[in-house]
Amino acid sequence: MPYCTACALAQSRMSEFEADALSVRLVSRETAVESLTLNHVLDRYLEEAYWPGLLSLAQQYPEPFVDPYRGMAENLGTQLNMKWAEYWLHQAMRVETRIDLTHPCLRERFEALKAAPRIVLTEPGQTADRLLGNALDPITEQMDKEWQDSIRSWWTEQYKKARKKQGQPAEQKARNRDQSIQVESTINFGQEVTVNG
């Protein structure tokens, strides 16, 4: 049988349904549904609120000083609320599967599970800290360091562009920052989520 893109996409979508069905057998329908729902909501939070808020700091600070993965865990409990979770889920359930996507739409995945989405936000103490225990800190520290190293050149470029737009030399801004700001290892990113439309 000749290989074609449409066939590959169809196979990938079928694999997604099979994976969802397997998760029901491995844990339970309720847990699989909650996990599928929460994964979507978390993806939207990270995509629309957390990362944009964090990356916007590159316009103000010359170096990537933040610890995004440590901050992610610390901010989820305060920033991700039921109002936004319900909004993002409602939006996702209206999306149809597109021919160019490898995954079926969320609505079709729930239909295949014969279940409705169920939002259960993770309680403090029920996240990676519970699963990883003492290994969490060194793992998080390593991930944060690798992220800072990988983003540094992009970050510096964004900072320079912002300074150029504002007409202030980057060196002067850096001196002012060093004198007047003490940066904590984590900060609260994107306190308010803005939704367009």
Strand-residue fraction? under 5%
Rounded to the nearest angstrom, the distance between the terminal CA atoms is 45 Å
> How many helical elements?
8
Global structural class: mainly alpha
From the spread of the alpha carbons, the general shape counts as globular
On the 0-100 scale, what is the average pLDDT?
78
Write a brief structural summary.
By secondary structure, the protein is mainly alpha-helical.
Textual characterization of the structure:
The chain is an all-alpha fold and 197 residues long. The protein is 65% helix and 0% strand. The protein contains eight helices and no strands. Helix 1 crosses helix 2 and helix 2 crosses helix 4. The protein is globular. The C terminus is likely disordered.
Write the layout of secondary structure elements.
Layout: H1 5-26, H2 29-55, H3 68-79, H4 82-93, H5 106-113, H6 128-132, H7 136-166, H8 170-180
Short key terms for the protein model shown above:
about 200 residues, mainly alpha, about 65% helix, disordered C terminus
